[in-house]
Design brief:
By secondary structure, the chain is mostly helical. It folds into 2 domains: about 30 residues; about 60 residues, AF1531-like domain (DNA polymerase, domain 1, Orthogonal Bundle). The protein is about 50% helix and about 5% strand. It contains 4 helices and 2 strands; from the N terminus they run αβαααβ. It has a two-stranded parallel ribbon. The radius of gyration is 20 Å and the shape is elongated.
C-alpha cells in the first residue's frame, strides 16, 4: 500500500520515537513534581495582537477555548478594535480571575 524508501522509514521511526519521548517526559512531569527539578519545562508563548488575531490564532494560546475565541471576535466586530486589554473584562465569561490569566497572552497595537 505504501512504498517508503529505507531512508523514509528511518525518518518516520525517528519522528515517532521523538514524539514518544516527548509524551513520556510530559506525562512524567505531571505525575512526579521532583522531575521538574531536572527538566525545565517552558510554557511561554509569544503575545498575540488581539486586534489582528484570528480565532485559530487565539485558540492555540493557553486557556483560550474555541467559544472564548469566538466571543472575543464577536466583541471586536461589534465594538471595533480593542483600545486596551482591560476591555476583555467586558466580554461575557471573562471575569477578574480569568482576565488575570489572559492579560499576559495579548497586546493591543
Amino acid at each position: 500500500m505504501f512504498a517508503f524508501t529505507a531512508q523514509e522509514r528511518r525518518l518516520i521511526l525517528f519522528l515517532f520515537g521523538v514524539g514518544l519521548v516527548g509524551i513520556g517526559v510530559n506525562f512524567a512531569t505531571k505525575i512526579n513534581s521532583r522531575i521538574t527539578q531536572f527538566i525545565q519545562v517552558d510554557n511561554r508563548i509569544t503575545k498575540i495582537n488581539i486586534n489582528k488575531a484570528s480565532p485559530e490564532d487565539m485558540f492555540g494560546a493557553s486557556g483560550i477555548t474555541p467559544k472564548l475565541a469566538n466571543s472575543i471576535m464577536a466583541y471586536r466586530d461589534a465594538h471595533g478594535p480593542f483600545k486596551d486589554i482591560e476591555e476583555l473584562k467586558q466580554i461575557k465569561g471573562i471575569g477578574d480571575h480569568r482576565y488575570e490569566k489572559l492579560k499576559d497572552l495579548f497586546y493591543v497595537e
